[in-house]
Amino acid sequence: MKASKRTTAVLLFVLTFTASISLINSALCGEREKQALLSFKQELDDPSNLLSSWDATVDCCEWDGVLCDNLTGHVSELHLQSPDSGSGLGGKIAPSLLSLKHLRFLDLSQNDFTGTQIPGFFGSLVSLEYVNLSYAGFRGIIPHHLGNLSNLRTLDLSGSLEVDSLEWLSGLSHLEFLNFNYVNLSKVPNWLQVVNKLPNLIELHLSSCGLDGIAPLDITNFSSLAVLDLSSNEFQSLVPNWIFTLTNLVSLQLQRNNFEGPIPSAETNMTNLRFLDLSQNRFNSTLPYWLFNCRNLESVSLSINFLYGSISDSIANLSSLRVLDLSSNQLSGKIPWQVGNLCNLQILELSFNELQGELSEVFGSSMSECFLASLETLGLRGNRLSGQLTEQLGEFENIQTLDLGNNSFTGPIPVTLGRLSSLTILRLDNNKLTGTFPLSFGQLSNLEVLVMENNMLEGVVTENHFVNLTKLTIISASGNPLTLKVSEDWTPPFQLTTIFLNLWNLGTQLPLWLQTQKSVSVLDLSCTGISGEIPKWFWNLSMISSMNLSHNQLSGELPDINGPNWVYLSSNMFSGPLPRVSYSVSELDLSNNSFSGGISRILCSNKTNSLTILHLGRNQLSGEIPDCWISWPSLQVINLGNNNLSGTIPGSMGLLGNLLSLNLYDNALSGMIPYSLQNCTRLIKLDLSGNKLVGNVPAWIGTSLSSLRILILRSNMLSGKIAQEICSLSFLHILDLAENDFSGGIPTCVGNLTAMSSESKLANFSGETYYSYFMGVFMESALLATKGSEFQYDTILSLFSSIDLSNNQLSGQVPEELTSLAGLRSLNLSGNDLTGVIPTSIGKMELLESLDLSRNRLSGEIPLSITHLNFLNYLNLSFNNLSGRIPVSTQLQSFSSSSFTGNELCGLPLPTNCTADGGNPGPKSSEEEDGSGSGPEINWFYVSVALGFIVGFWGSCGTLIFKKSWRVAYFRFVVEMWRKVCDS
Question: What are the Leucine-rich repeat-containing N-terminal plant-type domain coordinates in residue numbering (predicted)?
Answer without folding.
Answer: 32-69
